[in-house]
Task: structure prediction
Amino acid sequence: MTAASSDALARLLAKDRITEALHAYARGADRIDLDLIRSVFHPDAVADYGSMFQGTGYGFADFIGQVHPPMSTHTHHLSNISIRVDGDRAGSECYVLMRARIVAEDGTVQHLASSGRYVDEWERRDGVWRIVHRRYLHSQDEVWTAETELFGAAGTRDRTDPSYEVLAHPAGTPEVAR
Result:
């Protein structure tokens, strides 16, 4: 293998690990798995979510643990992932659409759609890619009253969800960004 081929393969593997970490973050938010969310951030990572949250990546995981449980359901959809790798550093932009169902104080069911972009700086430390700085750039929100519900929600928003059985590694922990 040539040096150019080896470098291209290393960049491709880094992009794959970063993409997997982005997906792990979304999965962690939807399952309210705070450890999975934390696994995507370096311990000293900055999390800048604008007026929603300012602090650390680990602090944002705690924030999710407070604001997501009252929601009946929520899903994070990621798209348009762009990644540039330069050695042990990388940058990414990822579009996110979050949809949630909320029961209002008057008992009506509300739907929420919120969209924006994650603009992340990454570092590979000890062979693991994690976020060192996240900026969430909010685009828009919509809230409306649900008129109908055809099917009830399935699965759980914790580690008893069936996805943990099929995605478990032999050690029982998810592999993130290795």
Remarks:
- The radius of gyration is 18 Å.
- DSSP finds four helices and six strands in the chain.
- The CA atoms of residues 99 and 113 lie 5 Å apart.
